[in-house]
Structures are given as structure tokens and as C-alpha cells.
């Protein structure tokens, strides 16, 4: 994967992430990866959400916001809403950015 001469891709980033040791991975690295894979579609976001659980990272407001933004940008407002509800259930408080992303997406999709 990384041996090719082509420009590194998000698949390369995910490959490296999955090979990092437990003590190298923190929420900052995880959030950067989620934010960077937004262009790859919602399946990557869902997979990374599961990776966070596997790596025992607790999702923070930035993690949830990045994932919610991914779903909103992919026109999946229901997935964004489900994640928003999960966010609240886990005790993570939404912030202004969370509400801004959701409002913008729901108005755009007219699903309010």
C-alpha cells in the first residue's frame, strides 16, 4: 500500500492508523483521521467510529462533530441525527458547532 509512488491517499492514512500501537493513538490523531476521510464517504466514518471503540478512545465533542459533519455532507441527515442522539446518551454535550452543522444540514435537506 505505502510502497506505491502515487500521492498518499486516505486509504494510506487509514492503513497507518490501524497499525499504530495503542499508546500512539489519542483523540487528536483519531479526530484528524475522521476529519480527513470525510471525502471518502459515510462508510469510512462508520468504520472509524468502530475503530474508536476498538482502540478504547472515548469520543469527545470534536469526534462527534467530525462524524456528524461527514454524514451531513453526504446528505445522510438521519444518520447524523442518530449519532447526535448517541452523543447525548453517552454524556457528551453538544456545542455550538454541533448545532450549526445539524441545523445547516437539516434545513438543506428540509428534514426538520
UniProtKB/TrEMBL annotation:
Keywords: Repeat
InterPro entries: PPR_P_subfamily, PPR_rpt, TPR-like_helical_dom_sf
Entry keyword Coiled coil: no
The keyword Repeat is assigned to this record: yes
Any coiled-coil regions, as ranges: none
Top-level taxonomic group: Eukaryota
Pfam families cross-referenced by the UniProt entry: PPR_2 (PF13041)
PPR repeats mapped onto the chain: 60-94
UniProt record similarity statement: Belongs to the PPR family. P subfamily.
Protein name as it appears in the record: Pentatricopeptide repeat-containing protein
Organism expressing this protein natively: Artemisia annua
